Amino acid sequence: MSAATGAATSSIVRFEGASKVFPGRRRGAEVRAVSDVTLDIHEGEIFGVIGHSGAGKSTLVRLINALERTTGGDVIVDGVALAALNESRLRPVRAGIGMVFQQFNLLASRTVAGNVAYPLEVAGWSRSRREARVVELLDFVGLSEKAGVHPSALSGGQKQRVGIARALATNPRILLADEATSALDPETTRDVLDLLQRVNRELGVTVVVITHEMDVVRSICHRVAVMDRGRVVEVGQAYQVFSAPAHDVTRRFVATALRDRPSPEVLERLRARHTGHIVTVGVDEVAGSSAVLTRTLREHGVDGTVVFGGITEVAERPYGSLTVELVGDPAAVEASVAALRDVTWVDDHGRAAA
Ligand SMILES: Nc1ncnc2c1ncn2[C@@H]1O[C@H](COP(=O)(O)OP(=O)(O)OP(=O)(O)O)[C@@H](O)[C@H]1O
């Protein structure tokens, strides 16, 4: 824990060389779903695990609540090492961890209130405490008026709200969300992500989000681990990882979320329309904003026209690029590009061939 290591943040989940090997279909074959992962998840953060299908995300996260047991290494949850624990000693650890699923996994025969009350019944809460807690939870997720209806009468987003209320029922300190928004349309996704953010901010719950969608990480995760073939290939602040991706898999995720860089075909069309010098300029928090770009060009007496680009937010900070046609004295254009390179990255596409 942090007190021992002197780190500024305390880790609520620590993977220590954790591996999970499944027996493969063929005799003697094996699948290394999680391979020697060492990683800390800090208390109070929203931590994203992103990767393509089969990368090992679900298995990694299921090691946290021991739905899967490690075959190598260990997972330490709130100071408790899981590998050595038997099923009965795992019970209290699991009680501190809630989970929501892509397919909601609600009980069709029970009402909304009945679904939320279910884990409280299992935990042995009295009827009056259960009822009070269900009222509180449904109010928190905005579904008080749906208490008596069955899941079949709910929209996907409402079902996931019930899933979240149920997962929070026993006051867990950790919430695992496995592709919680993958079955939802973009608008509903936004609502559910907002709710996960409130769970984190208002209740102080550490949220671990598994996703294959960069947009999910971009909008709510503080830190992120990128997985590829069972390994964590990159980990860090979501903003840093995505603004300076070091691994190919990460670069591809960034490209799917941001269509701000002109492809060779787009560039060819831009060149046909614009005869000036074309550059793509990174816009982020360090480079300030497009205001820095405008000021630099003005200082050099160069005219700039934005011809392509996009700026979005990663972890609530600006991120993207602008492609600009620069028109002016060639030496001034060159000097302005050099000045921009001092504050951000610049991709120089040059001028159209005469
Ligand atoms: N119970 C199991 N038995 C055998 N192999 C498994 C088992 N569970 C997962 N695997 C394999 O482990 C690898 C990682 O699977 P996992 O579900 O963790 O990946 P994922 O990144 O979550 O992918 P997806 O998004 O498709 O669920 C895959 O090759 C998968 O087939």
Automatic annotation (TrEMBL):
Cross-referenced InterPro entries, in alphabetical order? AAA+_ATPase (IPR003593), ABC_transporter-like_ATP-bd (IPR003439), ABC_transporter-like_CS (IPR017871), ACT-like_dom_sf (IPR045865), MetN_ABC (IPR041701), MetN_ABC_transporter-like (IPR050086), NIL_domain (IPR018449), P-loop_NTPase (IPR027417)
Q: Which residues form the ABC transporter domain?
A: 13-254
Q: Which UniProt keywords apply?
A: Amino-acid transport, ATP-binding, Cell membrane, Membrane, Nucleotide-binding, Translocase, Transport
Is the keyword Membrane assigned to this protein?
yes
Task: Return the SUPFAM superfamilies for the record.
Answer: ACT-like, P-loop containing nucleoside triphosphate hydrolases
- Answer whether the UniProt record assigns the keyword ATP-binding to this protein: yes
Q: Pfam families given for it?
A: ABC_tran, NIL
- Indicate what this protein is called per its UniProt record: Methionine ABC transporter ATP-binding protein
GO molecular function, a single term: ATP binding
